Amino acid sequence: MKICCVIVNYNDSETVEKLLLKIRGYDSLSHIVIVDNASTDGSYERLRKLSDPRAAVISSGRNGGYGAGNNFGIRYAAEHFGATHVVIANPDVFFTERCIRTLAEVFVRYPEAGAATARMEDPQFAGFPNAWRLHGFLGELLFMGPVCRRIFRDILYYPASALREKRPMWVDVVQGSMLMVSADAFLSCGGYDERVFLYQEEMILARRLKAAGRRTALVPSESYFHQHSASIGKSFSGQLTRQRLREQSVLFYMENYLGIGPIRKAAAKAWFAVIRAEIRIYGSLRKHFLRG
Length: 292
What we know:
The protein has 292 residues and is an alpha/beta fold. The protein has one domain (3-291): Spore Coat Polysaccharide Biosynthesis Protein SpsA, Chain A, CATH 3.90.550. Helix content is 46%, strand content 20%. Helix 11 packs antiparallel against helix 12 (262-291). It is globular.
């Protein structure tokens, strides 16, 4: 195996640099590829100063979104460094070298594996597994709602008890903040859908891998840390702004991968309005109690 790590940057060179300095000495990684998505704050120029024989800083030439940036980086890693497997990592994560080696063992033991990840430690999602089932239209609506997601967590997610397992377990979808993929499986199934700018990448990749006969594993015995929205929040600061972007991606996913028509699309939009109201109420209450 030849494992590379791909990190996509957009106007967040400080966070990217911190991760690079932590992992650039890992023997398990043959190369690290940093893809700059046409940053407007001088990130690319600053990050290029960190280049060395094992760390390549490249520009995608455009801000095509998270999926497009990772596709570009994974193709580069495969073509220039002969990567057989790639760690896709958000800038705001941290993982150990032992975690990388354990994930690599999944692909050695199970040739059908297309993706694998460890247990995610994220304060915002404490108690929620970072793996869930592929949902139909109704399930996707429930998954969107912050309250419904908690009420129906046993239906939407795998049980929390799964996180206490020692062995890898097969799941449908895993959180996209850090995972290892087979470069061949990822590229041959089409990778991320570049028509989606941000959000829903996990569901689409899961469906594409599954259609190609590949499986996805969660390894609860290892973990990585994720500082949720630390990078995204710098580009899309408001929660409602991120919510509207998420809605666009969800509608695209529903239309193109779940095959919904005009009636269900209208129902989804109505449900999104309810979620936005919930976010506004929560934000107002939070400000009130913080002032108190």
